[in-house]
Amino acid sequence: MSNFNSTPPLNRTSNSDNDQGEFLALRIIQGIGMCLFILTGIPGNFLVCYLVRRTRRLRTVTNLIISNLAVADLGMCLFNIPVSLVTVIYNRWVLTDFVCQIAGFTNSLFLFEALWSLALVSISRYWCIVQPGKFSAIFTRRRTLAMITATWILSLLCALPPLFDWSKYVFTVGKSTCYFNLNEHFPYTIILAIVVFILPYILITVPYYRIFRFIRGHSRRMSINSISASFRKATRSTFQDFKVTKLLLVVVCVFVACWTPHIIVNLMNGFGIIQSIPRILNAMSTFLTFLSSSCNPFIYGLMNNKFRKGFRAVLCAPCQKFAKQKTPMLERKISGETTRNLSSRSRSSHRREWRVVTETRNTVYESCV
């Protein structure tokens, strides 16, 4: 691992120390955005992992893959975005070369793992929708965990070579982070282009295309068949699978929209199609990749009722605990007033006051719903 002891491979550019005022507006936008991504991405992705782990109804094979994607996004928010934020603030690399190598490695590792996780999601959705009879046999919990482990091993093998002088992780001001230098070792560029870009994109798009064709055919059959009670019962689970597939398709589309500009620009630079990447293009394409790591929990919360209820239960837990402590005090107070006035009030009046107590309790509990 001679990169750690050699001269720092940092491409600071010749005028990066003298242009502190240049691109100031861009740096302000980057800084504010990165702060928001950290503040939302870390708790959001952690909650996704926590809910899948602790909620029985969410312990499905598909959600196991989703939680793995959340782990990759959480790693990006914990390790890479804070380093980039420091770089944006100083407008240059102020950390050591060791940190640069680690940042480049983790950035590549989590990117590759996110791509392969989405490919695994697409493949599992294909078997679930198009070949449901074989899905449970192929995607058992043990096999799914083995597939996830395999994607981590593959991502690790693709991210390690620059640490051993097969290409290098270098810093570029526009990216505000350390990234593999695709101009350094052409065979490595070819391998990355095929193994972690082209192949995952094929595995992501082709299954969803097949799913789309299947759903169109299923819709035609629905219009032809009479919608009897037995037919609705037979297709109820299929509709639920369609809803989950729609959610995951949105996740895939957001990821592709955020990462494709970054990947295309860097591959074009690596193959010599463009000699240098403009700073603003570098900055915005990297900014979109950070956005991708923080927005998935919001998609789950908006489009999946189970995740939405789970988020609400966790986030409202302190409020509900306070409500449970507050309610007995309110009941004792109102009950005391009721007891003092019982001698002068009728039984019907007592019932009305007890309804007030019940309504007060319901109001306290519903304040956090």
UniProtKB/TrEMBL annotation:
Q: Where is the G-protein coupled receptors family 1 profile domain?
A: 44-300
Query: Does Transmembrane show up as a keyword for this record?
Result: yes
Q: Which GO terms describe its cellular component?
A: plasma membrane
Q: Which InterPro entries does the UniProt entry name for this protein?
A: GPCR_Rhodpsn, GPCR_Rhodpsn_7TM
Q: Which Gene3D superfamilies match?
A: Rhodopsin 7-helix transmembrane proteins
Q: SUPFAM superfamilies, per this entry?
A: Family A G protein-coupled receptor-like
Cell location: Cell membrane
Q: Which UniProt keywords apply?
A: Cell membrane, G-protein coupled receptor, Membrane, Receptor, Transducer, Transmembrane, Transmembrane helix
Q: Where are the transmembrane segments?
A: 28-52, 64-90, 102-123, 144-164, 190-212, 247-268, 280-302
> Where is it mainly found?
membrane
How does the UniProt record describe the way this protein sits in the membrane?
A: Multi-pass membrane protein
State any single GO MF term: G protein-coupled receptor activity
UniProt name for this protein: G-protein coupled receptors family 1 profile domain-containing protein
Species name for this entry? Pocillopora meandrina
